[in-house]
Batch of 2 targets.
Target 1
Amino acid sequence: MVAGSRRWAGLWPLALLLAAAGMAACAPAPVTAEVPDAPAGSPAPRDAVMGGVVVRDALPGSASGPVTILWAGDTLLADAAQERLEQNGYQWPFEHLLPLLDADYIIVNQEGPITVLEEKFDPDQRWSYNAQPEAAAALAAVGIDAVGLSNNHAMDRGPVGLADTIRHLDEAGVRAFGAGLNLAQAEAPLLIDTPHGAVGVVGLSLDWGANRTAGPEQAGTVVINEQSIRRGYELARAAGARWVVAYVHWGANYEPVGRREREWAAGFARAGYSLVIGHHPHVQQPIDVMDGMPVVYSLGNFVFGSKGRFDRDYPGYGLIAVSVLGPDGFESLRLRCILTDNYLVQYQPRPCNPAQSEAVLSSLHPGVEVQEGVGVFDW
Ligand SMILES: [Zn+2]
């Protein structure tokens, strides 16, 4: 949604279950509010059924019309782009992509903390980022409603950097999910209420080490495995989701789809998810369908301020995927190709030209039909 048209879910009290989570000892979670005291004998608030924090938004619309949720990939307003951001403003990198950001709800992968802290959490980490607080307002201004934090950079500035990130996003009006100051916050799904039922979005990530993995009283992300795949689904359903989407940071940089991603994708299908959207490799990867559940293995980059390491084998293309939700669930994906190689686009990614779109989108899956630069995928 574009800024100004968003309608916050004031109707839906955000629930925070302090007891199990030990949240009281942590910095306040900005996306939460205290659960109002329930009258004696009344059922527990729906959001609190499984414990944890539920981040919730509501979309206006009719019960018959489609709801569109746009998914984009790795986003970082920092690093090699920093000088240009300071010269041109933090919305400048989105300039050529704005016409594509047309959906009821927009989610991207925020790949790096938003904080003024510069000190590395792990001194040995090769690539380590932070974006300045202005980045959060820019995300909101271009229409981004929520960001996933389940990635290998969420903890680049440690727990304080993560707390800053969540706070800056909250102040800008952008929801965050997929990482948290403790496990309950990290594993809490994003809930998007739609006229066709709530969509739950679960953020999972590869294992980046014990000090970056969320625990009962430790900040971090949630590691993908069979157990967390099932638990993510259960948490989302218990919070009221009718449809559950995995937004997952997996695979290897500049590599094709691996065996583990295929196995996990099968696990998502078995658990009951409706859609899997992946990211991390910085390049786009194919689409698969498992037991009727589409898997977009990697979106590639969206607006990513690092130089990148693209070559002939792994050119700098990314995907913007719009899922269309109807009364019976997700009906189709509409895919756009974007050019993200910063050597070519100078930190202003742009839509692919018709030939690039045709080549990239038709390579994703034999079922993708490319019409005027849009790849339409029904399954
Ligand atoms: Zn990554």
Target 2
Amino acid sequence: MEVTLLEATEDPEDLVCKAARNDYSGAFVGGQSLEATMETVDGDTLEAKKETLIGHLLDHGHFGPFEHPQITFAIEGVSRSCMAQITRHRHVSFDVQSMRYVSFDDVDPADVREGEMVVIPPSATDPEWVGRNQKQGAVDEADVEKRAEIFRDTIEDAVESYQELLDLGMPPEDARFVLPIGTKVNIVMSMNARMLMHVADMRAAADAQWEIREMTEELLDIAGEWCPITFDHYEREMKNRKNRLAP
Ligand SMILES: Cc1cc2nc3c(=O)[nH]c(=O)nc-3n(C[C@H](O)[C@H](O)[C@H](O)COP(=O)(O)OP(=O)(O)OC[C@H]3O[C@@H](n4cnc5c(N)ncnc54)[C@H](O)[C@@H]3O)c2cc1C
């Protein structure tokens, strides 16, 4: 998968601070500088004041100001299974690559065996991989070879059948019914900083599936560059506390 930043609010943490200070200030935050707005917050520099205020907001569960900054990600090549999981989050906006208007008629089914078009989970090929709800621990090499063979044969067959149906004139929107849930999809998704922390609470957690966890960790890496004070605090003090932002 590839996760990239498409767009994001500029100076997101200035915005969080202005919004939060608005609540407790007699002055109009729209009519003064950030320095003036932050004047009474503890800290020797503006950066230190931002750290004080943002840390205080997060520690006290005052999450509203984090709803103002927005970020948009472009995600390439996650499974439709992962897509079904992430699209359950109702405060995230999505655009999802269509299988009605995009047909995979030029993919070579032989390449599908090697990871083209369909995500191959690590448990199909790695004997050391132990997934959640797995009935046993590590398995022997022969079993994993068999697993990989069944998995690769099945996805190759599915894509071959799909393309045959297209050749027989079936519309892509119906031919797609034979494709596996691991079929790759590209997604554009937007959310605010509060929602990103909520998504991370649920989807970076140990009980989430490996693929959405991997995607969420990449979202968090980007978020750490975008809102460094907020997501550094999140990683240090809040991550892995279940449902912290959704009481
Ligand atoms: C490990 C894991 C396993 C899962 N397994 C399943 C499963 O087997 N089957 C399944 O169906 N789902 C499953 N889910 C999905 C899960 O139940 C949620 O639907 C999904 O994670 C969305 O999160 P959310 O409920 O916090 O809502 P979001 O849409 O992310 O909303 C954020 C918060 O807003 C509030 N909110 C939003 N909408 C409403 C509303 N209509 N009414 C009241 N409050 C609202 C809630 O506080 C909510 O927590 C699983 C999730 C995880 C992380």
